[in-house]
Design a protein that fits this description.
about 15% strand; 8 strands
Length: about 325
Amino acid sequence: MAARAAATQTYLDFERPLEPLDAEIARLARASPGTREGERLRRLRAERRRVQQELLARLTPWERVQLSRHPDRPAALDYLGVLCRDLVELHGDRRFGEDEAIVGGLGRFRGHAVVVVAQQRGRTTAERVRRNFGMPRPEGYRKAVRLFELAERFARPVITLVDTQGAYPGIGAEERGQAEAIAASLRTLAGLRVPVVSAVIGEGGSGGALALALADRVLMQEHAWYSVISPEGCASILFRRLTPETVARSAALLRLTAEDLAAAKVVDEVVREPGGGAHRDPAHAAARLGRALERHLEELARRPVRTLVARRHARYRRFGTDLPPA
């Protein structure tokens, strides 16, 4: 994971000021150590930290959405490969087929047996096509339901990782009952008699994301987004024009950032990312996410099952009734 991040350096437009600094730091780090070069290297790294802090301090909501889509950003399987041991992936919904946009199975997390379910979008072009760019079809959500029920049967807590622009809207998916499959996932999670912790690690679009995020605790990485619709979809509907300006304005109006959603009590914790974002230090990002997941799972494990389910129901009934003033 760390080796991949080190070999890949992709810069979004607003990250460009970091590119020459990174190139010079890399050149000096490879050079023979010397007093002058060592001092210059320290100054360059300090300058890079300063520039990076300034860039992050003035990020707009739309730029945060772009960070959530960064091609180098760790995906679900990157995190699971670090956080889970002995992961046995299970396949198929036992009704139609396999959907590789949703991955899941049995594993061990920090010494505890768990069931994990996650959305995986893929990294290479071939993998993205195979995984349908992380947009699940009905069979993906039915596979998730099968895993949730398995978790309850064996009394294993559930961890879900959310990263999708939304459920696949194609004709075939609608014919096979996309809406019903999402509703079944929501119903199953609502009544599940084991702890459920969800983390939005990238994009959290519409019901496609919510189908895995109805949980006792919802965490969200700092540069992820979570909303009823994507900024592009909102711009097309609200402004009837898809331009950079309308998309950026939609991102601001949707209040989709981690800080906005934490203020509205939609998410329980914002998991801070290492400087520059998770794509710049995936191993550190995974460690922070793992600590947050472990802490919430340990707290939930102490609750009686009846209390756990009752509080989960109360959590979602509360939404919309205690929103902060506009």
